[in-house]
Structure formats: structure tokens, C-alpha cells
Amino acid sequence: MKSLALYLFLLPFAVLADGISGKAQRFAFPKKYPHVKRISTDLSNYELLQLRGGDQADIIPESLRMLVDDAVDADRKIIVVTGGVLSGIGKGVTASSIGVLLRAMGLRVTALKIDPYLNVDAGTMSPFEHGEVFVLDDGGETDLDLGNYERFLSVSLTKESNLSTGKIYQSVIDRERMGDYLGKTVQVVPHISDAIQEWILRVAKAPVARFGASKKETPEICIIELGGTLGDIESMPFVEALRQLQEQVGYKNMCFVHVSLVPVLGSPSEQKTKPTQHSVAQMRQLGLTPDFIACRGKQPLEASAKRKISMFSSVPQNAIISIHDVSNIYRVPLMMMEQNLSSMLVHRLRIKPFYKTNTAQKYSAYDEHDITNISKSQLMKDWTALADSVDSPEGKCVIAMVGKYVDQDLSVVKALTHSAIATKQRLEIEWIVASDLDANDENTSKEAYDDAWNRLKKCDGVVVPGGFGLRGFEGKVEAIKYARESKTPFLGICLGMQASVVEYCRSILKRPNAHSSEFKEELMEDIEDAIIFMPEGDRERMGGTMRLGLRETVLREGSIAHKYYGHNKVNERHRHRYEVNPAVVPDLEAAGLHFVGRNTDSSGERMEIIELDESVHPYFVASQFHPEFTSRPEKPNPLFLGLLEASKNENVASPSS
Fold it and tell me: Is there a smaller number of Cβ atoms within 10 Å at the N or the C end of the chain?
């Protein structure tokens, strides 16, 4: 009887222990107790939870229950990247680089960025507030980190891949208004936290397409970046939801990578670990336990600093990864590979076929032997070559970025970088505030005006990116006129294309009052209104009402755009409310400005690409769409590639420039 009592005592612990690993196994009594029934093999996570006491069906909605069971049954993994000490520490690059390692293993990866701000999306936010807005295929206006995910993971994400506090509260309030919570007091816990878990699990299983492919595949791993800094009041519901989610899906299906700062202070200099110690302590107070710590700093993390962090964080030394400054961003995945993070992730998450079920070693024991063998994969070989090529260019190319804002067009810079790598050039960006090029701008001093023009004239190419608002528009027009007349390679994007059309109307068609109706009213219809408001646009609501997402463009054979794309039809991403007035197109075409890319949709023909003939200008191209959003390190966007090749040729022809 004593042994029977012992079995009965251990029963709930054994069942729950199996439940933590994702699925309960059969628990059998010895044959000498035939009168005691065997325990069922197929207990779900929620049946296991009921053993703890109470009816969990009352607090866990059926929709969440089904998603959790699906994730466990599919053996789907979740990696959460959090940040401590300060914001902007490099969580996005860390998450993206982990994705590269997983890609090299042949795994299908997706990503989710959590932003704790109350905005529903990033579409109405100023670049000064939160950086640029990154547009996805489905028209989602998202955080710029999704651009990093797409470029590193080589997938096309969806608007669901960016979750904000505004989105989750809006969805819960909508459900409350529909009566889904009838009779209940709607609270942050459990209703908001449940909704967050459901969102995460939906994104984790939603099929995504590899870049350039039409077929979508179900992901095997979802990488989640929790924006902001742990401890911020606005991120608390997400932290609690993540804590609950790990309990639901099990330890083996979810892990945490915490990014922290290790500053160097004093003389002689010393790596200070106290910020990381406190950050991890706060993380534990919130109910989360880091499995890996990614330490940011200027220099490689010293062994003594690793030991100290390990001692105070209970994270194994080998699982403390040095993410120090390197020559270029593409070396970060290589740095992780050298520290064998891939093998440790495989064993921490039991990722098949790499995980060995008969091993009893801790995940941190695999710090030297790379059981994934990704260093020999073609992807990592190509990635290494990419990183090396950035550091060994054959020449230099200086591109002027003429815009309303300085240092905000991150995706344009990335696209230029991809093309500079492909053309073996070292890229230098000359940031020029557009309003400084306008002699009539009352806020521009003569010194700023002269300096801006001197810097512009030294550049090998000019880019006028997209933007909104009148400020700096005339300066952009002047920069475009200079590029056209001096035959400096030029690429205009969105508003940059619209400014190019206005400039051509004024200078070549001799219509000095030509303008965009966005900035000036009382224009002569179909003569001076070179840019018009799109007929299906919404002048009242700002968020999500533009022409957004992937659209098809038909290219004219024999054009520069057709030569670089190599196709008759291309798909690119858009974000605009105004467009070229079709009524002025015939006059512009007759004057030499060719509209070589057009789109025909339900509201009529849209002008997508303009260019000058190569006999007139080496490279003068502008697009209504945003080509920067589809540029990838391994495959630069053709329009940027054309600009960098033309700039390189001009640089070779005129070395004094």
C-alpha cells in the first residue's frame, strides 16, 4: 500500500511534467495493481491544466485552446527577442540574424514585431517619431524592423506581422461591442492577454511566401521581437501574454533571447555587467526567464564579463552571446554562427532532425561542435561572400539623398547598399535637406544654400525619395532640374517622380505655374495640375486610405526599366494619394519624357515609371511605386542597380568627380 500511495502522490507531477514538454504520455501503474485503471495517453494541455484544479474551460476561450493544440501538435517553435537597458539596442538585427541561421538549416521562418504604442499602425507617424514606414505586399504600413526581417529572412510578410497595442485593443473592443464577452467584465487579463496569444499563434501558423515566389508555405518557426524595453509600462500586457503563452505551448516549444548592453567605462577601460544583471533581474520579476543573452557592446565580450553575467543571471556562460560592433550588418549572423548559437537553439527547442533525443546534455553544452553544419550550407557561403564584398569594394560612389528629412529613408539606403555591393562599390550617402536647395526658402541661410549646392554637385548620382508635405518640394524640383541638365544619374521615388513631372512641365513645356494639386489650388485644369488627387482617395481619414501594397506595372519593351527588370510585367509596392494627371501625359511624351511603366486597374490607367532616352541622359528614371521595399541583399532592386551602374560608369568617365 505504501508503494501505491507513492504512485498516487507522484501521478499529478508526472502527468504535469509531461504536459510541460507539450504532450502527456501514458502513465501506467504496475501490473500488481490491476484494480487501478491506466491513465489515458491523449490528455490535451487543457485537460492537464484541469488536474491543477478548476475548470479551465471557463477562463481559456475555445479559439485560443485550438490554436495552442495546433501549435503543439505541429511542433511549431517560437523564439522571443526582448531588450533591456535602453531602446534601439539592436533587437531587430538580432532577431533577423537568428532567422538567417534558421534559414541555413533549411527551416521555414516567419516573424512578428510587437510595438507597444497605441497607434493602430505606423502609417500616420512622422519619421522623426518612429523612423520610416515600411510597406508590405498586402498594403500593411508597418514598423521599419519588418524591412529587416524581409531582407534577412527573404520572405514576404503580411500586415498581421506587426502587432501594436492599438490593434489589439481595437480588436478586443470590437468583440466586446459585438457581444462576444456578453456577461463578462472585459479586462487586460485575461481578455487582452488571451487576444495577444491568439494573434501570435495565428501569425506563427499563417503561410508566407518566399521572396519572389507565389506559393506560400506554413512556417516551422516564428521569431517575435518585443519592441521597447522590458519594464516599460505600455509593454506589460504583452509581457504577461508571453509568460502565459510559454506555459500553454510548453518549455520545449518557446525560448527567450534577451538583448542587453555591456558598456565600457573607466580608465583603464572595463566592461560593466551591472546594467545586464539588473535587466535580467527585472525580466525574471516579470515572469520571463532568458535562455540566451545577446550582449551588445563595442568590443567582444570578455570571459570575465561572461562569467559574472552567468553567475547573476543563471544563464549558462556558453549561452551568453557577444554581439559586438562589426564592419557591416551582414556579419552579425556569421558572428552568431561562430559562437554556435544555431546548435544551442536546436537543442533548446528540440528542433528536428538536428536534435538527438537520446542525449542528456544541456543545450548550452553544444558551444563548440556545430551539429547543424550550417557553415557548409550554400546560404551561409553566399552570406559570407556578401559580407566580405561589403568590406572589399573596387571603388567609391557618392549618392546625394535629397529629401525633407535627413537620415530617415532607411530602406532607400539599404536598397542603395545592395546595389553598391553588386557593383563592387563603397557607398557614401550625402544627405541634403531639400529646402536648403531652394533660394526662395525663407528659413534657408545663404551659407546653408551654398553648402548644399556644393555638396550636391560633387555627387555621382542623385536620389529624390518619397515624402509628404510642401516643405522642401521646390528644393527637390531644383535638384531634379540639376540632375537632368548636368546628366547626373537620377532616380526619383513616389513624390520624387511627381516632382520630376512638375519640373519637366515647367522647364520643357514652359508651364511655369505647373504644380501638384496636393500643394496648390486654383491650377488650370489639365494644363497646370500635373499631379492630381486619386479619384478613389479619402480626404477625411488619413490612416490606411492611400493606394497601398503590391500592384502590377506593364513595362514598355526597349525601355531602360524593361532592360533592368528583364520582364514585361513587374509587381512593386505603392504608398501614395496623388498621381500624374493622365491629361498632361501626351504633351510630356511628345516633349521627350517617356511613360514606360503603366498600370491599368478599376479606376483607369496609372503612370508608374518615367524615363528619358539613354541618348539624352545616361540614367534618368523615376517611379510612382517604392522599389526600395523589394530590394534584397542577394537580389538588388533593378532600378537601384541601374542607378549604381550608371553612377559607376560616370565616375569612371570623370574620375575628378
Answer: N
